[in-house]
Amino acid sequence: MKIYAINGSPRKGWNDAQMLDSFKKGVLSLIPDADYQEVFLYDLNYKGCRSCFGCKLLSLSEPRCAIKDDIYELLHELRHCDGFVFASPIYFSDASAELKAFFERLMYPGPVIKEIPIHAIYTMNAKKDKFDSVFLPSLSTTHKALEHNFKTKLNMTCAYYTFQRNNEHLYKPSSHSKPEDKLAYHNLHWENDLQNAYIDGVHFAEKLLQIRK
Fold first, then answer.
1. Which of 91, 152, 177, 212 has the smallest set of CB atoms within 10 Å of its CB?
2. What ranges in 93-135 are assigned the alpha helix state H?
3. Which DSSP string do the residues of 25-43 spell out, in sequence order?
């Protein structure tokens, strides 16, 4: 069983990476022999869709992005995998630009031929009420496109008001949060956030096994 984990954060080892790692542990607890591939988008050289229409040629046996760069093979493999999870910080009420450019290339060729479960992990410098009222409406168009393209319902795991850096005293403070408040929130909630990612990984694996039957 082939599963991809796509990390759309520019920061290695931080919140999104840790959430993805917990999600992975949840998946592998039920499917220990899964071929689980992790991809860090910021290591790859690519751009968004160029509107060349190469993926729309009638001569193709199946739709495929025509731009041969670092994600050329990955895009093809994702259209044939068993499931994938992606993670992103929220920037300006939306996913990272790197992830959005990736989605342009992934989805423009058109829907896949089978149901492929997908899962989103988001981390953010905001609390749940702002995510629900501001960020989620901004994300909803992309979510609908993903659900259409992959013939499934997208589920989410979110970590709110995340602690973003060490040595806070070296940086200009945010206008809407105090470092000590964020650290206190982190100490209270982060382990639970990781546990939620683990549990959702288990649920994701259950869905994969159900589809395989």
1. 212
2. 97-107, 128-130
3. HHHHHH-TT-EEEEEEGGG
Number of residues written out for the chain: 213
Token reading at 80: 């044939």
E strand intervals along 47-171: 83-89, 118-123, 155-159
* pLDDT tens sequence across 59-116: 988 889 999 999 999 999 999 999 999 999 999 889 999 999 999 999 998 888 889 9
CA 180/CA 211 separation, integer angstroms: 46
Cα(118)–Cα(175) distance, integer angstroms = 35
Domain definitions of the chain by residue range: 2-212
Cα→Cα distances 213→69, 114, 208, 210, Å: 36, 14, 9, 5
Q: Name the token pair of 200.
A: 């959702």
Q: Which two tokens stand for residue 12?
A: 């290695």
CATH number for region 2-212 = 3.40.50.360
Look up the pTM and report it.
0.91
CB 26, CB 97: distance < 8 Å: no
pLDDT at 164 over 70: no
Q: Of the ranges 5-19, 68-82, 176-190, which one carries the lowest mean pLDDT score? A: 176-190
> What does the buried/exposed string (b/e) look like for 118-130 if buried means 16 or more CB atoms within 10 Å of the residue's CB?
bbbbbbbbbeeeb
Tokens of 106: 């992934």
SS3 85: strand
